[in-house]
Amino acid sequence: MLPQRLKKAITDNPKKLGNLIDLVNLPSTLREFVGQSQISRLGCFMRVWSYIKTNNLQDPTNKNVVNCDEKLKSILLGKQRVELVELPSLIKLHFPKEPK
Asked: Per the database record, which ranges form the DM2 domain (predicted)?
């Protein structure tokens, strides 16, 4: 069951959903992190989030901040600390732009 707001967004602009779930070839840095040669943007974000939770990388005092280890830094432009709101845009940089 999708929330009503998400249903409306998908019906208004189905290409937006397609950009999230289409499989793409990954660059080498992201391929090493994810362990696959092709993955969707959404799948990649889910893998990164799972890695963060598994390795306890969220700041204990501020859960909106991720303290990056060396492996995570390699895909997040070498940043030491990343806010959760920045995470999707940093991951999106690894995916090729769709022609309009």
From this structure: 19-97
Residues β-bridged to residue 67:
81
What are residue 69's phi and psi, to 5 degrees?
-90, 180
Question: Could you tell me which of 81, 80, 75 has the C-alpha nearest to residue 93?
Answer: 75
Residue 36, number of CB atoms within 10 A of its CB = 13
Spell out where the chain has E strands.
Answer: 24-25, 38-39, 65-67, 81-83
Rounded average pLDDT per 10-residue block, the chain, 100 residues? 55 56 72 82 86 93 92 89 89 71
DSSP label of 22:
S
Q: How many angstroms separate the CA atoms of 67 and 52, rounded?
A: 9
pTM value is 0.72
Element counts in the chain: helices (H) and strands (E): 6, 4
